[in-house]
Amino acid sequence: MVAARITVNGEEAPIAPAPAHTTVLDFLRERGLTGTKEGCAEGECGACSILVARPGVDKPTDWVAVNACLVPVAALDGQEVVTSEGLATAGAPGTPPVLHPVQEEMAVRGGSQCGYCTPGFVCSMAAEYYRPDRCAHADAEGGSGAEHGPNGFDLHALSGNLCRCTGYRPIRDAAFAVGTPTDEDPLARRREQAPPAPVATAYVRDDSAFLRKGTLPETLRLLRERPDAVVVAGSTDWGVEVNIRSRRAGCVVAVDRLPELRELRVGSDAIEIGAALTLTEIERRLGGEVPLLAELFPQFASRLIRNGATLGGNLGTGSPIGDSPPALLALEASVVLADADGEREVPLAEYFTGYRQSVRRADELIRSVRIPLPLSPVTAFHKIAKRRFDDISSVAVAFALDVRDGVVRKARIGLGGVAATPIRALATEAALEGRPWTAETVEAVAPVLRDEGTPMDDHRASAAYRSAMLGRSLLKLYTRTTEAVSS
Amino acid sequence: MSQLSERPEKSVVGLPLPHESAVQHVTGTALYTDDLIHRTKDVLHAHPVQVMKAHGRITALRTEPALAVPGVVRVLTGADVPGVNDAGMKHDEPLFPDVVMFHGHAVAWVLGETLEAARLGAAAVEVELDELPSLITLPEAIAAGSFHGARPVMATGDVDAGFADSAHVFTGELHFSDQEHFYLETHAALAYVDEAEQVFVQSSTQHPSETQEIVAHVLGLRSHEVTVQCLRMGGGFGGKEMQPHGFAAVAALGARLTGRPVRVRLNRTQDLTMSGKRHGFHAQWRIGFDADGRIQALDATLTADGGWSLDLSEPVVARALCHIDNTYWIPNARVTGRIARTNKVSNTAFRGFGGPQGMLVIEDIMGRCAPLLGLDPAELRERNFYGRGQTTPYGQPVVQPERISAVWEQVKENGGIAARRREIAAFNAAHPHTKRALALTGLKFGISFNLTAFNQGGALVLVYKDGSVLINHGGTEMGQGLHTKMLQVAATTLGVPLHKVRLAPTRTDKVPNTSATAASAGTDLNGAAVKNACEQLRGRLLQVAATRLGSNASDVRIVEGVARALGSDRELAWDELVRTAYFQRVQLSAAGFYRTEGLHWDAKTFHGSPFKYFAHGAAAAEVEVDGFTGAYRIRRVDIVHDVGDSLSPMIDIGQVEGGFVQGAGWLTLEDLRWDAGDGPNRGRLLTQAASTYKLPSFSEMPEEFHVTLLENAGEEGAVYGSKAVGEPPLMLAFSVREALRQAAAAFGPAGVSVELASPATPEAVYWAIEAARRAGASPVRAEVVEALSGA
Question: Do A328 and A296 lie in a common domain?
Fold first, then answer.
C-alpha cells in the first residue's frame, strides 16, 4: 500500500508522521498553512473551512467546503484540498498576491475586520462561487432580504461560518457581487476532470489505525473483526468527539466512498438513498422529489456540515436530537442494514432502542434508507431552535398527512427533542385519522400532541416550552395549509 | 476649530479605506499569536488542570502522575512562582489558587512536548478538595449578602420630592443575562527567554503594558526585562483587556523555568469556562413620571454579577450608573451600584463596559411604562430627551443635546417610519398569527476612561533616510481598524501618500505605559499621539524645506508628498526633503504624547465630568414575530450614528453594523446557562461550546440594513474632528428588543405592559406573547397595575 498522502494547494505531501486522530486542520497548520483557523473545533464556526475536490453532481468534480477541524487527515488520503492561501496567486517578487475574485470582493468591501474568520468565509464563498448550478437569475424581489443574490449566490452556503465583528452585511455584499469563473480559472477547469478516486488506506500510528477498504464486503468483514471500530463518513460527529470530548479510537473505519452506500434510486414503490451520500448530494440530486426533505435540509445544521454529514451518520449515532429521524419517521422510512452475511430491513420506528442506542449491531452498516411511495401530500417540518441557521433543535416536528376530501386518511408525525429517542406521535396520529381536517379537529387534537413524549428542561429550552411547541404545531400546520389554499 | 480637530487639504483621513490587513486576512497570511508556534522551534505546549467544582479548598495537589505521562516536561504550580502569585491588578486573582473559586478554575498547568501529552498529563494530576458552599446565581449572592468592592451611589436632586411630585409611580425589577465575548481567536500567548534573560511574550492582549506588568511581577522581574508584543487579535471586545495577563504569565513562567518557548492557547471550551464575560445584572427600580410622562425621579439599585474576583467590576458598575440616564433627563435620582461575589468566572470588560447594562435598565423601564402611561413608546422617549443646559445625574453638562434629536429625527426620516407604522398596523390587523412592530431607541455614550489617569496615549514615529515612515503607537489591533486609522492620521499630518507609511506591531519596548485599547478611546488617544509625533517631525522638516525653497517654514505646505512654498512654484519631493534633513543632522524620529484635557472625576462623591464628549446615535428596528413559536426575524434596521467627522467611513460603518449585531445577539439570542442546581455539576457552565452558545449568524442579520453617519458632525475635542465608535453602536440594539416587546404586545389588547426576559430568545418572546394573550382574556387596566405597584 502506498504511503498516505494528500495534495494541498497543488503540492503533494505525506500525511505521516501525524497521529491517526490528527485533523486536517492541525495537519495544515503544522505544515505552516496557518490561514486555516480553529475557532470552535466542533464544526460550528467555519473558521477552518477548506475546499475539497469531490465527485460532482453536475460536473465530474465539485469543490466542496468542509470543516477541516472535523475530518481526520487520513480520510483525505489521495485527495486534493485547497486553502485560503491556495486561492490567491503569488504576484511578482515584491508585489502583492493576485487575489481570487472572492478574496477581492471580501477585501475591498470591508468583509474582514479582525480577519480570523475570513479565510474560512473565503473558502465557503469560493465553493459556492464554483457551484456549477449557481444560475445567475435576476432577483425578482429586488435584492435585500433575499437569501439568494442576483448572481445566484445562496447565502446558506455561508450558514456554517460565524463572524463576530462585521454583522455580516459586507460579507453578504461580497457574496452577492462575485461573478462567474473565467475559462482560465484553474479551479473551474479542475471541475471538468474526474475527481480524485477513493484510496484504500491503512494509516497506522502507534496503537491507532485509520482504515478505508475499497469495497463493501471487505469493510463488513473488517467490522466483524474489529467490533471496537468507529465507523465514520463525513466525521461530523466523530470529529466533535475527538476534539471536544478527547475520545481516541483504536480503529476508525471510513465508509463514505463505498459505491454501494452512494446510490440514489427513485423506484415506483420506494426511494432508496445511500447511507453515505452527503446531505448536500441528496438535496441536490433529489431536488423537490420529497418535499418534506426539501424543507428539512436547509434547516439541517449548516452547508459545511451537510457537505460531510450523511443519513447513515445521523441515524447511526442514534442522537435524540438529530433532525433527519423525525422527518424519516413521518415518511415511514426503513433502514437497510448490511453485515458480512447479508442484509435486513428495519422500519425506522423500530430502529431506536434508547438514548443513542439502536438495533444496529457493531458489525452492521447502514447501507441505505428506504422511503416508501407514494408520499402523503401534506407535509411540514417545524424546527424550534434559538437560531434560524445552524442550530440544534429544541423540538422538531415532522408531519406527513394524507388529507383527501377534507378528511385525514393517514397521519404520520415524527418528533425530536422530546424523548430519549426520536419518536412517532402515535396518540396524535390515531386521534387525527378519520377526522375532518378542520379547525375543530385541530383544536381537539392539539392537546394530545402537546402531551406526547417526555420533554425535559435544559439549556436549549424548558420542558414547558417544548410541550407548548408541540401543542402549537398542529395549528401552525393547519393555518399554513389553509392559508396556502386560500391564497 | 481646534488645532486637534482641523483637517489639512487633501487629507488621507476621511477616505473610505478597507482594513490595512485586508489582503492578508483574505489570503490567510495575517498572523495571530498562535500561528507563530509553527514558526518557532521546540515549543512546549501548556494545558490547564481545571478543577470541576464551584468552590473548595485544595487539600492535596499531586503532580507526579502527570510527570509519568510520556512527553510531559513539567508541571507548573504555585511553588514555582518566583515573584507574586497574582494575575490581576486588584491582588485578588492568584494565578495558582489554593482555593478553587469557580467550576473550571485552573490550579496548575502541565507543559508537554505535544498538546496531546500536556492534555493527558493534566488529566493525570490529582487534586483533592474540601468542598465549600457556593453561590452561583445573582439572587443567591444577593440573598447571602455576598458583595465585594465599591458600592457607589449616584445622587442628584431630591428623590423624595421628585416622587411626591409624580403623577405616576411604577416599580419593577429586571434580571438580565451575561454575554460571552466569543472572539473567534481564543486566548493565546507564546513566551520565550532571549540570550540576555529578557522575557519576550507574544500575547493576544488589548493591554500589552498591563500584561507586561503582570508577567514581570509573577516572575519577580522589572518591567524592562519583559517585552510584550501583540501582532493583532482575532477579536477582543473587552475580553482581552484584563483576562490575557494570567495566560501570558503562565507561558512566561514556563519559558523561564524550562528555557524553551512555551505556548498557551485555550481551546474554545477552556476559554468559555475560564475567562470572564459581560456582567449580568439585577436591577430593582422605582420611577416617577409627571402627568405628561416626564421623568421626575428614579430610585434604583443595580447589582452586577462580578464573579469570583474584582477584575474590572468596579469601573464597569461606575459606567453602568453613568449610563442609566441614556438620552433622558432625570432631575432627581438615587442609583446605587454593587458587585455580587459569586463562584463563577471573573466578569470583565465587554464592549460598552457597563454602559449597555445601565441603559438596558432605563430602556426596559420606558418600554414597560409607555403603555401604562398611555403613550407611544417613541413619544415617551422623545418627551424625556435632554435639553439645553441640563446635566447628567453625575454632574456632567450635556453639551450637544441637539444631536440626540438630530439623529432621532433623521432616522425617522430615513426609515420612512410614519408610513411603515401604518403598513405594520394594516399587516397586524390582517394576520392573527404573525405580528410586526417597529421601535426606535436612541443612544448617548460617554467617551473617555472614567479613571482620568488612563486618558493618555503615546506614539513613536520614525522617518528613514529613504523617506519611508514607520509608526508605533500604544494601541492594539483587534479588527476595529485602529491601525488603518493611525496610518491615515500619520499620512495626513505628514502630508505624504499612504503608501509611504507602515505600521509596526504593538510592543511595550516602543511605547511604554500604555493604556488598554478600550473605552472606544483607541483612536482618540493614540491618534492624537501619532499626530503629535508627526507634527514634531513636520515642524522640523518644514524648516529644512523652507531653507531649500527660500521661504519661511510657516509658508511651506507638504501635500501628497511634495513640499511647496506659498506663492512659489518651487517644489521639493518628500524623499529628497528627508534625505536633506538627514544630512543636516535633523532628528527624524519623534515620540508623541497626548493627554485628554478637561476631565475630572471624584469617585467618592460620584460626581464630575469624566467624559470628553458623548457619542450619539439612533436606531429603528422592525421585527416580525411568529405567534406559534415566538421565533422572529429582524426585517429592517435603520441607523443614524454620530462618529464626528469620520476618519475612515468604511471602518466606522463596519463598527456600527458589527456593534449593532453583537448587541442584538446579547439581547435576543446569546444565552449563557449555568448549572445552579445542587447536583455534582453545580456551577458548571452548561453552554460551553459553539454548539450550545449561539451567537448571531447570517440569519440574525437585519434583512435590510441601512447605516448612515451623521453629517457635519465635527467634534472639536478629538483627533481630526472624529468621534469614538467602537462601543456605542452596540447599544443601538435596544431597538430590536423593544420592537420584540411591542410585537409580543400586539398579540394582546392595547395598553398592556409586556415584560420581556433578556435575552429575548424565541422562548422568551413566546412567553411574552402568552402573557399578552392572557391579558386579553382578563384585561388588567393600567390603573390597577399602577395601584398594585405601590404608587
Answer: yes
